[in-house]
Amino acid sequence: MARRSGLGRGLDALIPQTTAVSTDVIQEIAIEEITPNPRQPRQWFGDEDLQELAESIRQHGVVQPIIVARTGSRPSYQIVAGERRWRAARLAGLTVIPAIIRELSPREAVEIALVENLQRADLSPLETALAYRTLIEEFGLTQSEVAERVGKSRSAVANTLRLLDAPAPIQRALASGEISEGHARALLSLPDASAQLEALRLIRDRGLTVRQTEDLVRRWSTRPQSHRRSTTNVPLEFERATQELQRRLRTKVELRRGARGGRLIIHYSTLEELQRLLDELLGQPDDDLLD
User: What is the pLDDT of residues 166-196, one digit of tens each?
Assistant: First the structure.
């Protein structure tokens, strides 16, 4: 007897498992009649992985059918699950692909795609968070309902969603694999973006593990508030202004006061981020200033 997956309520009725594929009608559908789902949770497909899968498909064919839904227009079908197989089949030169057609609502299609990718561990933490947010904002689900559908606890869903509140440099470091989800969650425990970005710098400079980062955050959080403020010599209203600038610009900002004025320092890590900041500060100029 097949072991039931812990992910997703009623998932066996939605995604064909090894013992259930025979109960579905598998059809050969022209690849050009299939389009990706714009709400596909997985945003990144590695070129090397796709090439390896394409080579396997050339030798053995598409072992597991994809799942599609009718669109009511051309192309006639939209992918629900199996976009990676569809992309690799195109690379392999196939003109048709085995598929199972399902009658699904847009929300059901997103749920199935999310659960399938979670089962395969194909999604990055940020991709998972964006998929959760889609279900909440576009389809009106609560965090508890999302948790029920993907087989997670509500707190796990809430913690993953918090990653979307991280400053842009932390999100980029997480997406690139420079830091792990554990690092990012620890950083989000710090009180403001300035502290989070400073701690990110220490992680990079010192190669801190998740456990070491958690220890750093605990020490940081237990320092007296007066000591934390004295290093910058910024009054409370300036600190609030700094936090608001960091929130809007999505990067580290320093506001330093002197006897005759002061300095406003805006940090950036790449030329692309500098261009973004210039665009925001100058009102989206027509030409890139860094060209």
Answer: 998 999 999 888 999 999 999 999 988 888 9
Catalytic site residue from 28, 83, 148, 198: 83
Question: What pLDDT score was predicted for residue 266?
Answer: 87
Residue 144 phi/psi, 5° resolution?
-65, -40
Residue 134: count of CB within 10 angstroms of its CB: 18
What is the distance between the alpha carbons of residues 270 and 163, in angstroms, rounded to a whole number?
21
pTM over 0.70: no
Q: Are 238 and 257 in contact (CB under 8 A)?
A: yes
CA–CA gap between residue 265 and residue 259 (Å, rounded): 17
Q: How far apart are CA 138 and CA 47, in angstroms?
A: 30
89/112 Cα distance (integer angstroms): 21
- Can you tell me whether residue 47 is helix, strand or coil? helix
- 83 in active site: yes
CA dihedral angle for residue 146, residue 151, residue 152, residue 153, rounded to 10 degrees: 80
Show the beta-strand stretches assigned E in 62-195.
66-70, 77-81, 96-102
Q: Which structural domains are found in the chain, ordered by start?
A: 11-160 (3.90.1530.10), 170-225 (1.10.10.2830), 232-282 (no CATH)
220/222 Cα distance (integer angstroms): 6
Per-residue pLDDT band at 248 (split at 50, 70, 90)? confident
CB 224 within 8 A of CB 194: no
Separation of first and last alpha carbons in the chain:
63
